[in-house]
Amino acid sequence: MEKTIKILVVDDNQDNRELVVKVLQSKNYQMIEAADGEEALEKAVSESPDLILMDISIPGIDGYEVTRRLKSREEFRNVPIIALTAHVMKGDREKALNAGCEGYIAKPFSIHELPRQVERYLN
Fold first, then answer.
1. Which fold has domain 6-122?
2. What's the CA dihedral at 4, 111, 84, 98 to 10 degrees?
3. Is the pLDDT of residue 16 over 80?
4. 61-106 pLDDT tens trace
5. What was the pLDDT predicted at 1?
6. How far apart are CA 101 and CA 52, in angstroms?
7. Would you kindly state where each structural domain of the chain is located, as residue ranges?
Protein backbone atom coordinates (compact mmCIF):
# COMPACT_ATOMS: atom_id res chain seq x y z
CA MET A 1 0.00 0.00 0.00
CA GLU A 2 1.29 3.45 -0.85
CA LYS A 3 2.03 5.83 1.99
CA THR A 4 -0.28 8.83 2.04
CA ILE A 5 1.71 11.99 1.49
CA LYS A 6 1.12 14.68 4.11
CA ILE A 7 1.26 18.34 3.15
CA LEU A 8 1.18 21.20 5.62
CA VAL A 9 -0.25 24.39 4.16
CA VAL A 10 0.53 27.55 6.12
CA ASP A 11 -1.54 30.60 5.22
CA ASP A 12 -3.34 33.16 7.37
CA ASN A 13 -5.98 33.64 4.66
CA GLN A 14 -8.65 30.98 5.15
CA ASP A 15 -9.90 31.19 1.53
CA ASN A 16 -6.37 30.59 0.20
CA ARG A 17 -5.88 27.69 2.62
CA GLU A 18 -9.21 26.11 1.69
CA LEU A 19 -8.44 26.41 -2.02
CA VAL A 20 -5.02 24.75 -1.63
CA VAL A 21 -6.54 22.00 0.54
CA LYS A 22 -9.35 21.37 -1.93
CA VAL A 23 -7.04 21.24 -4.95
CA LEU A 24 -4.49 18.94 -3.30
CA GLN A 25 -6.97 16.68 -1.48
CA SER A 26 -8.42 15.87 -4.89
CA LYS A 27 -4.98 14.37 -5.67
CA ASN A 28 -5.18 12.19 -2.53
CA TYR A 29 -2.76 14.18 -0.41
CA GLN A 30 -3.46 14.35 3.32
CA MET A 31 -3.70 18.03 4.19
CA ILE A 32 -2.77 19.75 7.45
CA GLU A 33 -3.47 23.44 7.97
CA ALA A 34 -1.85 26.22 9.99
CA ALA A 35 -2.86 29.88 10.09
CA ASP A 36 0.22 31.48 11.70
CA GLY A 37 3.88 30.93 12.46
CA GLU A 38 3.45 29.38 15.93
CA GLU A 39 0.83 26.93 14.66
CA ALA A 40 3.02 26.12 11.65
CA LEU A 41 5.93 25.14 13.92
CA GLU A 42 3.67 23.09 16.22
CA LYS A 43 1.93 21.24 13.37
CA ALA A 44 5.18 20.62 11.50
CA VAL A 45 6.72 18.99 14.57
CA SER A 46 3.61 17.00 15.61
CA GLU A 47 2.52 15.90 12.12
CA SER A 48 5.86 15.38 10.30
CA PRO A 49 4.63 16.49 6.86
CA ASP A 50 6.33 15.33 3.66
CA LEU A 51 6.12 18.84 2.19
CA ILE A 52 5.27 22.32 3.50
CA LEU A 53 3.64 25.12 1.51
CA MET A 54 4.65 28.28 3.37
CA ASP A 55 3.02 31.67 3.07
CA ILE A 56 5.57 34.36 3.91
CA SER A 57 3.29 37.06 5.38
CA ILE A 58 1.72 35.28 8.33
CA PRO A 59 0.93 36.58 11.82
CA GLY A 60 3.48 36.15 14.59
CA ILE A 61 6.59 34.48 13.26
CA ASP A 62 6.84 35.13 9.50
CA GLY A 63 7.32 32.40 6.92
CA TYR A 64 11.02 33.12 6.49
CA GLU A 65 11.68 32.62 10.20
CA VAL A 66 9.46 29.51 10.44
CA THR A 67 11.43 28.05 7.51
CA ARG A 68 14.78 28.90 9.13
CA ARG A 69 13.71 27.32 12.43
CA LEU A 70 12.44 24.14 10.76
CA LYS A 71 15.50 23.81 8.53
CA SER A 72 17.76 24.08 11.58
CA ARG A 73 16.23 20.82 12.86
CA GLU A 74 17.61 17.50 11.66
CA GLU A 75 14.18 16.00 10.90
CA PHE A 76 13.28 18.83 8.49
CA ARG A 77 16.53 19.01 6.52
CA ASN A 78 15.03 16.87 3.72
CA VAL A 79 11.45 18.13 3.90
CA PRO A 80 10.80 20.47 0.96
CA ILE A 81 9.45 23.84 2.07
CA ILE A 82 7.91 25.79 -0.78
CA ALA A 83 7.15 29.50 -0.45
CA LEU A 84 3.55 30.06 -1.62
CA THR A 85 3.36 33.80 -1.57
CA ALA A 86 2.15 37.04 -3.05
CA HIS A 87 5.66 38.44 -2.42
CA VAL A 88 6.70 38.64 -6.05
CA MET A 89 8.96 41.67 -6.12
CA LYS A 90 12.53 41.48 -7.33
CA GLY A 91 14.59 39.68 -4.70
CA ASP A 92 11.65 37.98 -2.94
CA ARG A 93 12.35 34.60 -4.54
CA GLU A 94 16.01 34.80 -3.47
CA LYS A 95 14.99 35.82 0.04
CA ALA A 96 12.73 32.74 0.29
CA LEU A 97 15.44 30.44 -1.06
CA ASN A 98 18.03 31.96 1.30
CA ALA A 99 15.70 31.27 4.26
CA GLY A 100 15.76 27.60 3.29
CA CYS A 101 12.82 27.19 0.92
CA GLU A 102 13.42 24.68 -1.87
CA GLY A 103 10.99 26.40 -4.18
CA TYR A 104 8.74 29.33 -4.80
CA ILE A 105 5.17 29.48 -6.11
CA ALA A 106 3.70 32.94 -6.69
CA LYS A 107 0.12 33.84 -5.78
CA PRO A 108 -2.29 33.86 -7.34
CA PHE A 109 -1.36 30.32 -8.36
CA SER A 110 -2.95 28.17 -11.03
CA ILE A 111 -5.14 25.42 -9.56
CA HIS A 112 -4.12 23.28 -12.55
CA GLU A 113 -0.41 23.89 -12.09
CA LEU A 114 -0.29 23.56 -8.29
CA PRO A 115 -0.53 19.72 -8.12
CA ARG A 116 2.17 19.42 -10.80
CA GLN A 117 4.41 21.87 -8.97
CA VAL A 118 3.92 20.02 -5.69
CA GLU A 119 4.66 16.67 -7.36
CA ARG A 120 7.92 18.02 -8.74
CA TYR A 121 9.14 18.86 -5.23
CA LEU A 122 8.08 15.47 -3.85
CA ASN A 123 10.10 13.50 -6.41
1. Rossmann fold (3.40.50)
2. 80
3. yes
4. 999 999 999 999 999 999 999 999 887 788 999 999 999 999 999 9
5. 55
6. 9
7. 6-122
**Contact 96/76 with Cβ under 8 angstroms?**
no
Average pLDDT over residues 8-33: 97
Do the beta carbons of residue 49 and residue 79 sit within 8 Å? Answer: yes
46-51, long-range: CB < 8 A, 24+ apart:
47/6, 47/8, 48/6, 48/75, 49/6, 49/7, 49/8, 49/79, 50/5, 50/6, 50/7, 50/79, 50/122, 51/5, 51/6, 51/7, 51/8, 51/79, 51/80, 51/81, 51/82, 51/118, 51/121, 51/122
Assign 2 a pLDDT band (cuts: 50, 70, 90).
low
d(CA 36, CA 28): 25
Residues 6+ positions from 3 with CB-CB distance below 8 Å: none
Q: Number of C-alpha atoms within 13 angstroms, CB side, residue 44?
A: 28
Please say whether the beta carbons of 111 and 25 come within 8 A: no
